[in-house]
Amino acid sequence: MAKPKNQREFSVLSISLGVGFATGLYGISFGALSVSAGLDIVQTQVLSLLMFSGGSQFAFIGVIAAAGVGGIGVGAAVVSAWLLGIRNGFYALRMAPLLKPLGLGKLIPALLTIDESTAVATAQKEIADQKKGFWLTGAAVFVFWNLMTFIGAVLGDALGDPKNFGLDAAAAAAFLGLIWPRLMERQTFAVAALAILIATFTTPYLPAGVPVLVAGLSSVIFGLFNWLKPKEQVIK
C-alpha cells in the first residue's frame, strides 16, 4: 500500500536532514585535519565549497600532510582527489535522466551529486520523491558540511583527534542505514560483500581512490550477470 503524499514528503525531509547532519559532523574532522596538514582556514573552506566531496577532500589533505604543499605534493594530492571523485561521475549518469539539467543549470546538480544525495534519491519509489531526496539531501549535506568544516578549521588543534569523538563512524552509519533495506536481497548483499572485500584487500597496495574504482567495477560486472537473483517467472 502506497504511503500518503504528505507522509512520503515528511519521510524524505527527515531522512535528508538526518543524513545531512550526520555527514556534516564529519566535516569537523576535515577542517581540523586540513589546518594541521598546512592549509589555512580560507583554503580549507574553499575545498569544502568547491570540491565538496568528502573522500576526495580527505585524500587531498592526506597527501598534502605527507608530501607538503610544494608542486609535487599538490600534484599528487590533485590526482588522488580526482581518482576518488570519479565515482561521482557514475552517480551523475544515474541522476541525469531524473533531473534533466540543461546548460548552466547542470552546475548545481553536478556539485550536489555525491554519495548521500544519490543514495537517498534512489531509495525512493516515486519520481517526485526521488527528486526531492536528491535536492534536499544535497543541500543539507552542503550546508552542514561547510559549517562543520569552518568550525573544525577554527578550533583546529583544540579538538585533538576528531576520530576520538566517533565522527568518522557517524557518516558511515548514516550511509549504511540508507542501503540496509536493499541488502536483504541475496544478489545485492553479494555485490556489496564483494565490493567490501575487494576494497579492503586492495587498499594497502593501490593508490588512494583506485580500490574504490576496482571494487565498483567488479560489482558492476558481478551485478550484470545476475547470478543470485531469482529469475521472474513468466505467466502465460
Automatic annotation (TrEMBL):
Membrane topology: Multi-pass membrane protein
Annotated family: Belongs to the AzlC family.
PANTHER family in the cross-refs: INNER MEMBRANE PROTEIN YGAZ (PTHR34979:SF1)
GO cellular component, one term: plasma membrane
Lineage: unclassified sequences, metagenomes, ecological metagenomes
Listed InterPro entries: Brnchd-chn_aa_trnsp_permease (IPR011606)
Major subcellular location class: membrane
GO biological process, one term: L-valine transmembrane transport
Keywords recorded for this protein, A-Z: Cell membrane, Membrane, Transmembrane, Transmembrane helix, Transport
Membrane spanning stretches: 12-38, 58-85, 134-153, 165-181, 188-206, 212-228
Keyword S-adenosyl-L-methionine tagged: no
Protein name (Swiss-Prot/TrEMBL): Unannotated protein
Keyword Transmembrane: yes
Location(s), subcellular: Cell membrane
